[in-house]
Amino acid sequence: MTETCSHVAIRQLYPHYEACYTAVGKTTFSLSKDQTLVIDAPQVSPDLLTTNDLVLLHNEQKFELLGRLDDVINSGGVKLHPSKIEDKLSSQISNRFFIGSLPDNDLGEQVVLIVESESPFDIDFNNLDKFEIPRAIYFLPNLVETNTGKIQKKKSIEQALLHAS
Predict the structure, then answer these.
(1) What is the mean pLDDT of the chain?
(2) CA atoms 123, 133, 81, 70: torsion sign
(3) CA atoms within 13 A on the CB side of 61
(4) Are 109 and 73 in contact (CB under 8 A)?
(5) What is the pTM of this model?
(6) What confidence tens digit (pLDDT) does each residue in 41-99 have?
(7) 98-135: buried (b, 16+ CB within 10 Å) or exposed (e) per residue?
């Protein structure tokens, strides 16, 4: 949400990583009916800002970011947050990668892993819950990017499917 509303929360990254963001100034947080973050930051805007960020609200001053509402994968009725799975895999994979989904007749959506690599390599999924384990892994020489270098996930998945056939 930095594009919309900035300087409303901070978190410590070094020397000790903290999962929770803490409100800055008079900012307070609440949840919408969809469990997304609502920001009340009178120093930034007189209006409440409802985001698409799914959060675990600890209190009106602290929250933990779970991911984006539009990124949630519903696999067999289990809601999975790609960013949480990516966090778990980040110590295993040094290449650029992301978690995405593909339609699945039985599950609704299946979790897939897209890795930027010229050749496949083994990945240990022992630290993932059984629903988080990717049903398919695709290795692409280059992930599709915008002009500013941001990964285009949908286009990268399309490219991975073409590359695999």
Answers:
(1) 90
(2) positive
(3) 4
(4) yes
(5) 0.74
(6) 988 889 999 999 989 999 999 999 888 888 899 999 999 999 999 999 999 999 999 99
(7) bbbbbeeeebebbbbbbbbbeeeeeeebeebeeebebe
Residue type, 137: I
Higher pLDDT, 144 or 165: 144
Token pair in block for residue 112: 């897939």
Q: Which residue has the tokens 């990516």?
A: 86
For residue 2, name the pLDDT band (cuts at 50, 70, 90).
very low
Q: DSSP secondary-structure letter at 165?
A: -
**Residue 10: what residue type?**
I
Burial class for 85, CB neighbours closer than 10 Å (0-12, 13-18, 19+): buried
Residue 59 tokens read as: 């209190």
Angle at 138 between CA 133 and CA 141, to 5 degrees: 140
